Structures are given as structure tokens and as C-alpha cells.
Please model this.
Amino acid sequence: MTDVARRVTDAILVAGGKGTRMGGQNKVYRLLAGQPVLGRSAAAFLSHPGIRRVVAVVAADDAEAARAILPEEVTIATGGASRAASVRAGLAALSDAPPDRVMIHDAARPLIDRETIARVSEALDAHDGAAPAIAVTDALWRSATDRIEGAVPREGLYRAQTPQGFRYEAIAAAHAGWDAPGDPADDVTVALAAGLDVVMVPGEERNLKLTLAADMRRAEAMTREGTPMDIRMGNGYDVHRFGPGDAVILCGIRIPHGRGLSGHSDADVGMHALTDAILGALAEGDIGRHFPPSDPQWKGADSEIFLSRAADIASGRGFRLSNADVTLICEEPKIGPHAAAMSARLAGILGTTPDRISVKATTSERLGFTGRGEGIAAIATATLVSETS
Model:
């Protein structure tokens, strides 16, 4: 029997299938929270102090794609026509310097955690094999159609997971001696057929296998659990005096009026304040820094250009708008009849929904320049959120 004191352990990532039940691209090359699934699985084992080396078994025509996303220290082996054949290819790739133990893991389980790997490894001190599992808690039914034919007792039933760990020589011999018809469901099946002693260790719900599109969405949500939120708030203030004209543009809406607003662009005081609020939340200066009034190209420009640019900067840095609040300060024109249209217009520019954009108005009780009807002021607040890794 292998000397358990040495505990040299390698890992095999099984990724030899096409993995297209999600539709389109092979699932192990899809991005999960910005990282390819295969790369995430490899990183979990490479970073574990108990793992010496990692072999990724991939389809022959995926070798180039795998090499592009995997670190150089990962060995790439060509898979076979079945899962068992791919595992045998992985075992063979380790035969030049065989380990004492081997962890065989579905590459489509990218959220494997360090604790589960450790539990499997520790169980191998006293057993030929070990695998994580979770007890079945849901009721089980039997049916060959859409009609329920009967219940199946769930006592003593478990959901199998990987990595399934074994003494290397024992599982290599078991695979070599497999002669039952069909492809075995997993490596525990092969081990049991060879008479090996295999025990269960506690699995984790996070260690799910990506099979359908819903699994990917669930995994994305799991990667965000416990992730700190970066929340930013910014304020903006702007003012424009009245001048000649027959309408004012406020928050993207043209309102007929006896005077217009003077400014280098279209003088949309509400949109300017909101642009400054977003830029302020990002510590990106103000609207004048990005669109200098001294630059003639912005003369008479639609302020949507400014607000869209601020939104693009936020998105490029991984932020999304949580909500915005704009207050217009003026004696005239009346804002209330146009507030809903203004919210909808701003929401459209910012790629959100109107229920996240508040537009309201107040007067200054005839005090100050707004009270004297000399111009319009606007105050805006914007909240940006980003999930940081």
C-alpha cells in the first residue's frame, strides 16, 4: 500500500466533453464572473498547498483554447470518446512521476472550495478512495412521462460531487480493469467495481456542476455572495441665466417658455448637474474638465452627450447607477407637468428605469437670483454601486 506519510497528490480536471447543453460555446470556456470556467477550476487546485501538479484533459480540438487560458504549469492531455477514456488519459499523463494520490474533478465544477479538497485528502489517509456528497432532501418521484408514477424513498440517497480522490495506483488499476458494458457514471463506480474501499465526506452546495444555462446564472450569483459592495455617491450643482429664446431644455425635455437659458451648450441645467454628480462619485472631476466651454465643438451641443459620457465612464469602471435625484430650483416654468417625461428621458440615456430617477422642483420663495427670475439652478445626487472582487 502507498506510504500515506508522503501524501503526494496530483489533480486531473476532466474537460474532454463538448459541454454544449447550454447552447453554443463549450461551457468550460465560458466566462464565470470574468474568468473562464476551466481556468477557475484549475486555479482552485493550483492554489491548494496539498496539490503538486494539475492535468487538464480536453478534447483534441480544444487544446489551443485550453492552453490560452491555463497557466504554463498545467499539463494538457487529450481526452477520449468517453469520460472514462478521458480519465485514463489523465492518469497516463501522471505516470511519468506518479503521485501517491490523485483527485479527479469535473472541470465544470468551478466553485470547488479548499475545505472540500482537504476533507477528501484527509479521508485518503485511511481509505482507498473518498468523494464529497450531499444527502438528498427533496422528495423523489418516478415517472417515464409527465405523469407521476410513484414516490422513491430518499433515505440513504446522496448527490455525488467531485473531486473524487483515490490512491493513484489503485484507481489506475481499477480503470485498466474496467470491463463492464457502457461508460461508468463516475470514478467511484469504477473503484467500487474493483473492490476498493471508498468513503463519503461532506460536500458543498456551492460545488455545483454547470450543465444548463440556469446553472451558470446560479454560479454567477454564488460568486457574488459575500462580495463587498463599492458604493459611491456624488453631488452636482449647476446654474444658467435666462436669455433670449422661446423655450428651455431641462433634463432633456423642451419646455416652451418666454425666455431661453444661456450657455455654451444647450444650457440643460438639470442634465449638467446630474453629469457632475456621476463624475463626482467617480472622482473624475467635473463636466468642464471633460467638455471645456472653451472648446468650440461643444457650442450648442446636446447635453445628452455629456451625460452619456459620464455613464460610459462609470460603466467602464464597473459601476452601475443605483438611483439619481435631480431638483430644479426656479420660479418658472412649471416643472410638475413635465417631471415624468424628464425621468423617462434621463433613464433612457443612463440605461436604467424611470423608477430609479427622481426629478422634482422647488422655488426659492422669491429669494435670490432664482427668486427674482434671473435663471434656473439644479442640484443632483447620484449613487453608483460596484461589486468588487
Remarks:
- The chain has a mean pLDDT of 92.
- The first strand starts at residue 9 and ends at 15.
- The two ends are 44 Å apart (CA to CA).
- The CA atoms of residues 91 and 172 lie 7 Å apart.
